[in-house]
Amino acid sequence: MSELPPYWLRDNCPCTECRDHRNGQKLFRIGDLPKDLTIAASKEIGPDLEVLWSDGHRSRYPLAWLGETDHGDGRTEEGKRLWAAADFARGIPEADWEEYLADPAERAAVLAAVRHSGFAVLRGVPAVEGQVLRVAESFGYVRVTNYGELFDVRVEPDPNNLAFTSAAIAPHTDNPYRDPVPTLQLLHCLENSATGGDSGLVDGFKAAAVLRAESPADFALLTGTPVPFVFRDRRTELRADRPLIDVDALGRIREVRFNNRSIGTLRVGDREAFYAAYRRFAAITLRPELQLAFRLGPGDCLVFDNTRLLHARTAFRQDGHRHLQGCYADLDSLASTLAVLHRRSAALDAIAALFAGEGAGEYLGEEVTMAEHMLQAAAAAEAAGAPEHLVAAALLHDLGHFRGTLHGRDLMEGRDNRHSDTGADWLAQWFGPEVTEPVRLHVAAKRYLCAVEPGYRERLSEASEYTLTVQGGPMDGPQAAAFAELPGAADAVAVRRWDEQAKVAGARTPGFDHYRPLLAALMR
């Protein structure tokens, strides 16, 4: 503990007094912490470290968190897969559009490829105008520029950019004259029947790393010289002064801006040395081993990192038609979507582990296991045509009984473990009240039904009758009336009825994996 700076540790206190439980944002300013803050006492409690502060505040930190290392925001060369063309001899990162939409794991794989390798291709995207916008909206937001919400890459009679001709285009990044530059570009092929017009990519981070290895002085010059990038037409005038290769404070490559068509007149620094370095870097980007060539066909949509990859195309003859539609988006929204997909996957893995682990144990004296009970409840809800949020609530309603993750106590020992609240609170990390409130109220719903529905109590199993008494017994009249007015009461009653049905030894039901897509769709 002595090696941990007190203000750093206190600033990262995760308790609800210090952070908003919904978004993790801090509820205090650093200047609000007392002067001469010290640790009064500390002790390990299970997997956590508890700290008592000199001002009386108490914090609890997971020991695993204290030992974590920070890999940064994922934007630098660290953690990227720097590549040459031969690395994709077995095929480029690609996926079917419909599978990408339907399967969160497939979507995560595509977005991870863009994040780590810099690109991916979606196949089978409907070859209709405007569809590229739907692709961008599947993971983020469209960045509108002077080229519009989307732009057509085809031969134009009066082009304001060489991209809108049939000429060959050398490896380059787009919009270097913008600050901030659009960090993602999407190109969706609607038609490509012309001779030529093949696409190409170069890993700019790899090219920059090669330059650093072969000529450190040139690398230093290109990272330290601001270059004027300029674009102008009748309605637009843009300029951004940025280096060709940008590094972060630790010297890691973070961004490449490379576009010979848009470099303005350099008037600062050693221009002779700069041009020697610039030419060396340009020559590296043209090395055949670094150029990945492929052809986009109708329905193919290329998504790539515009701060890293240089894209190119060969010249084409106008003996056919080549029509791509493009748009810009941003890496931060892609990274956000990917992080949420990973977070949801980890949560679903944790829930699945409970079903497979503690779920295999006996269920409160019934003839089914805990997992069998919850799966039977979900199957009953599904068979009844219940909406997805109620199928999920039926599936998850008894997670609060589990000891390991939720720290539940044994109801059969005569103590109310308040498992409905424990389970609902735990699930609220990922699910909204449409799922958690029926879970929270399903015990109250049993007490309610025993009070208002003749014969309901007599149908309870022996174990359910016992737990009813531990949980407070049937409601009285005012309690039942108050319960009936709750917004989630009807849903909780529905879950309760499926709960009581779900105690049949040997009943066949779908496994947990059957419900993963449903749960993933409901997660927030």
Protein architecture, described:
This protein is of the alpha+beta class and 524 residues long. It folds into three domains: 6-66, NE0471 N-terminal domain-like (2-Layer Sandwich), CATH 3.30.2020; 85-337, Double-stranded beta-helix, CATH 3.60.130; 358-522, Hypothetical protein af1432 (Orthogonal Bundle), CATH 1.10.3210.10. The protein is built from 17 helices and 17 strands. The protein has helices at 6-11, 63-66, 97-102, 104-116, 131-137, 204-214, 216-224, 271-285, 331-356, 370-383, 388-396, 419-427, 433-452, 462-470, 477-484, 489-501, 516-522; strands at 39-45, 48-53, 58-62, 94-96, 119-123, 151-153, 169-172, 184-192, 199-203, 227-232, 237-242, 245-247, 253-256, 291-294, 301-305, 309-313, 322-329. α4 (104-116) packs across α9 (331-356), α6 (204-214) crosses α7 (216-224) and α10 runs antiparallel to α11 (388-396). The longest helix is centred in the middle third of the chain and has 26 residues, at 331-356. The two termini are 36 Å apart. The relative contact order is 0.10.
Count of DSSP helices? 17
Shape: elongated
Q: CATH class of the largest domain, please?
A: Alpha Beta
Reported for the largest beta sheet, the result is: 6 strands, mixed
**Tally of DSSP β-strands:** 17
What are the main properties of this structure?
single chain; 524 residues; alpha+beta; NE0471 N-terminal domain-like; Double-stranded beta-helix; Hypothetical protein af1432; 3 domains; four-stranded antiparallel beta sheet
Short structural summary:
The chain has helices at 6-11, 63-66, 97-102, 104-116, 131-137, 204-214, 216-224, 271-285, 331-356, 370-383, 388-396, 419-427, 433-452, 462-470, 477-484, 489-501, 516-522, and strands at 39-45, 48-53, 58-62, 94-96, 119-123, 151-153, 169-172, 184-192, 199-203, 227-232, 237-242, 245-247, 253-256, 291-294, 301-305, 309-313, 322-329. The protein is an alpha+beta fold and 524 residues long.
